[in-house]
Fold this sequence. Notes:
The structure is a single chain. The chain is α/β, with parallel strands linked by helices. 32% of the residues lie in helices and 19% in strands. The chain has a single domain (9-120), classed as Rossmann fold (3-Layer(aba) Sandwich), CATH 3.40.50. The strands form two sheets. It has a three-stranded antiparallel β-sheet with strand order 2-1-3, with no helix packed on it. Strands 4-5-6 form a three-stranded parallel β-sheet, covered by helices on one side. Helix 4 links the parallel strand 5 and strand 6 (117-120). The N and C termini lie far apart (42 Å). The model has no long low-confidence stretch (mean pLDDT 81).
Amino acid sequence: MRDGPPDDPAWLDAAYHGRKTLVTRIGTTRADHAEPGTRHDGWPASSATMPGLALDTDRRARIADGATIVDVGTGSGYGTALLAQRYGDDQVTSIDVAPSLAAAAAGRLDSFGAQPRILTCDAAGDPPGT
């Protein structure tokens, strides 16, 4: 685990090195709301997939240009950002069961101009609007 500001080079190296999947939420506590050095009880409830694995997964999916993409498990928004960058905002819908994660990811995506559709719903149920 690495505590510190996101602009710290050591923090960035830990986050983007690509060797580990990072836990981004334990129980109801999101990593970006946790106090440095504080321990939390509970099970990991969200994570950021290793960057290389996310790219490899998308590549192996062989998604055709113009396809409509549903990204299940928005989480931090990292994977959604990759898909939106490659295929375009209009082609990507990302869903997450946790309203706080979906809202935080939408804010992060919006901060650099990405605006794919983000929905809060359970992927095991009917999608909204059906």
